[in-house]
Amino acid sequence: MKNGSDVPTDGLTLGIQSGNFGPALEASYSYGSLVYWPKTSMIKGLGSISAGIETGPLNADRFIIAPKISYTMNWFVSFGASMLYYTDFSGGSLRFRPEGGVAMLGVRVYHGWNFSVDRYNPLPMNSSLFGLTYFVKF
User: Fold this and answer.
1) Which residue from 72, 80, 92, 125 has the least number of CB within 10 angstroms?
2) Which pTM value belongs to this model?
3) Phi, psi of 64 (to 5 degrees)
4) Dihedral sign (CA 10, 92, 120, 57)
């Protein structure tokens, strides 16, 4: 590994969220590039595109799942965006989520806002949430 250069990588991003409707889980396959701190194997920065899935609020009265695709840039200051399709298999809602937060050593803490892209659907989804994720390199 060369210090200060981008290193292609892939891995699993796992996380938990808490929002106005309750806690939710997320998992994604992520592909991108890493930059390491000089003379160490600790992650300094990570830029990745991810494809994965989220649950709706775990305390909802029905099971909600959301396939998603996202892009994040993490260099202490973290920003990203996701497109998600929340569904309970009887209805659904397409959402755009901008995200901002902080990240270090593969851990990311962020705040996200879900905005409806299609018609309104009254599924119990977090419109505002805080998330904590960890990148596990393959």
Assistant:
1) 92
2) 0.86
3) -125, 135
4) negative
